[in-house]
Amino acid sequence: MRAVIQRVTRAAVIIEGKVHASIGEGLLVLLGIEDADTDEDIEWLSAKIVNLRIFNDNDGVMNISIKEMDGNILLISQFTLHASTKKGNRPSYIRAAKPEIAIPRYEKMIQQLCRDMGKIIKTGIFATDMKVELINDGPVTIVMDSKNKE
User: Fold this and answer.
1) Residue 11, CA distances (Å) to 24, 54, 103, 111 in order
2) Does residue 84 fall inside a structural domain?
3) What single-letter DSSP state applies at residue 82?
4) Could you read off the pLDDT of 96-138 as tens digits, one per residue?
């Protein structure tokens, strides 16, 4: 499971010209799912996201998590995070999970993030053409992969 986590002052997902979901200060999380992802990957990644200390404390030091600041999360599925560009110029998405595998795992990730945050998170709609707007704060962008726990 791969995630691109962006600290934002605001973010929104637009579907068919209408705002489907939006948040103020918080995290925009783009999530890529592959066949090999398990419940363990979901639990590990969710815990890392909600406890990642990337918000400034009173001294301007990144020392506060999204959970501690009671911020919001906007989670967007993005299969292109598992693109392979090894050969040629057209990316291959062979590593990205097919919908029958990815949708239940995406839904489990939503549930896990809600549990770990102690509140509802906002989401896009799986396998839908979405426009994502954001103002990256910092900018702070972190990439995590549950198969490469650096």
Assistant:
1) 7, 17, 23, 20
2) yes
3) G
4) 899 999 999 999 999 999 999 999 999 999 989 999 999 999 9
79 given a catalytic annotation: yes
Range of the domain at 67: 2-144
pTM for the model stands at 0.94
The catalytic residue among 55, 79, 112, 123 is 79
Q: Name the pLDDT band for 7 (thresholds 50, 70, 90).
A: very high
Instruction: Assess if residue 149 is contained within a domain.
Output: no
* Residue 45 domain-assigned (yes or no): yes
**Looking at the 3D structure of the chain, how many domains does it have?**
1
* Residue among 9, 38, 55, 80 flagged as catalytic: 80
CATH code at position 105: 3.50.80.10
On whether the CB atoms of residues 121 and 112 are closer than 8 A, the answer is: no
Point out the catalytic residue in the list 6, 78, 112, 123.
Answer: 78
